[in-house]
């Protein structure tokens, strides 16, 4: 019972992050599962099994809100499913001693990305309306799907910024299309783990607890995103992911760092993390108080207002799904 409660809390925390940032559900939940001692392959399998439910609900909601470009879903989702299946079977074949530090390295890289992106970077703009080519989306899907399965997460952190950087699709449709296509990735990864681990390798009760926690957190995330700026929340979550996975690596047989080295590393991470949070808060306050120039009607491309900056999108979660909508930054507390 204690384990199920911890897993439900892990799902709750992961959904709070994903519902506020539009990414990092898998990275956050897998990191929390590893922190309570779950086997790496079982952790990723559990997360992806739970994601079948959350991504299905998310995709339906995005479709109803008009946030899905089905051409993008097909071009990135099907290759992503292939990559996820391959990644799941690959991770299932690794020994626990090798899989744990390997997954920690992937999660550490993704955590560093989340930390730096939400601390320093905004959403790009330009080329809006131009079609996204299959030769760009297909390789992206394969790589993102493989990393998502082997690292327990990564579909959103890899796929979303890459498509945003192209500037060819408005942010709400980028998030909606990536979230919807993740259903295919979750199904393929779950099948891959079923082949590699067998039905005994996946604990259905764990997946159910993780899913239940995510569903409970959905309305809370909708409230949270209106009160905590995504930029600040991203810096906070990125720091947690980095700290947790550095701890795993330092204690692994790969490194076997002494206590002195470990505490020195933790101190450095805490200092950088605090500096990143302070920078994010100051940048948010400057942006909130800065005067905004009115935009003349019809003077810009459709959706231009949505791509102005990182905090120009509100990830409003409803029934476990995320809907992107433009908001006025001055309304944030």
* Portion of residues within helices: over 70%
Outline, from the CA principal axes?
globular
Radius of gyration using CA atoms only: 19 Å
Q: First CA to last CA: what distance?
A: 38 Å
How many helices does DSSP assign?
11
Low-confidence runs: 295-333
Largest sheet: 2 strands, antiparallel
> Mean of the pLDDT scores?
76
How do the strands line up in the largest sheet?
Answer: 1-2
> Into which percentage range does the β-strand content fall?
under 5%
Question: What brief labels describe this structure?
Answer:
disordered C terminus, mainly alpha, 333 residues, two-stranded antiparallel sheet, single chain
Helix-strand blueprint:
Elements lengths: L1 H20 L3 H11 L4 H25 L5 H24 L2 H25 L13 H18 L3 H12 L4 H27 L6 H21 L5 H21 L8 H31 L23 E6 L2 E6 L7
Antiparallel strand pairs: 1-2
In short:
With 333 residues, the protein is mainly α.
Describe the model.
There is one protein chain. With 333 residues, the protein is mainly alpha-helical. It has one domain. It is 71% helix and 4% strand. It contains eleven helices and two strands, in the order H-H-H-H-H-H-H-H-H-H-H-E-E. Strands 1-2 form a two-stranded antiparallel sheet. The longest helix has 31 residues. The two termini are 38 Å apart. The C terminus is likely disordered.
């Amino acid at each position: 019972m204690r384990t199920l409660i911890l897993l439900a809390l892990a799902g709750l925390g992961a959904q709070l992050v994903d519902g506020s940032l539009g990414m990092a559900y898998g990275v956050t939940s897998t990191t929390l599962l590893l922190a309570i001692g779950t086997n790496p392959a079982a952790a990723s399998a559990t997360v992806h099994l739970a994601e079948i439910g959350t991504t299905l609900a998310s995709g339906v909601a995005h479709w109803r809100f008009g946030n899905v470009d089905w051409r993008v879903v097909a071009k990135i989702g099907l290759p992503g499913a292939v990559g996820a299946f391959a990644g799941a079977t690959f991770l299932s074949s690794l020994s626990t001693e090798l899989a744990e530090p390997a997954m920690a390295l992937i999660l550490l890289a993704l955590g560093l990305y989340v930390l730096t992106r939400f601390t320093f970077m905004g959403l790009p703009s330009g080329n809006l309306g131009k079609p996204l080519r299959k030769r760009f989306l297909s390789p992206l899907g394969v790589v993102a799907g493989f990393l998502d399965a082997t690292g327990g997460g990564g579909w959103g952190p890899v796929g979303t910024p890459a498509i945003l950087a192209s500037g060819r699709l408005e942010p709400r449709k980028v998030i909606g299309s990536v979230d919807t296509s993740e259903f295919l990735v979750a199904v393929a990864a779950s099948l891959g783990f079923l082949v590699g681990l067998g039905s005994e390798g996946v604990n259905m009760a764990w997946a159910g607890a993780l899913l239940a926690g995510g569903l409970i957190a959905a309305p809370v995330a909708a409230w949270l995103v209106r009160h905590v700026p995504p930029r600040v929340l991203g810096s906070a979550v990125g720091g947690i992911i980095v700290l947790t996975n550095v701890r795993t690596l330092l204690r692994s047989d790969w490194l076997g760092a002494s206590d002195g080295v470990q505490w020195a590393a933790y101190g450095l991470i805490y200092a950088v993390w605090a500096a990143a949070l302070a920078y994010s808060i100051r940048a948010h306050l400057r942006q909130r108080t800065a005067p905004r120039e009115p935009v003349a009607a019809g003077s810009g491309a459709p959706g231009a207002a949505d791509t102005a900056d990182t905090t120009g999108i509100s990830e409003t979660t409803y029934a476990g799904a995320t809907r992107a909508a433009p908001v006025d930054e001055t309304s944030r507390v």
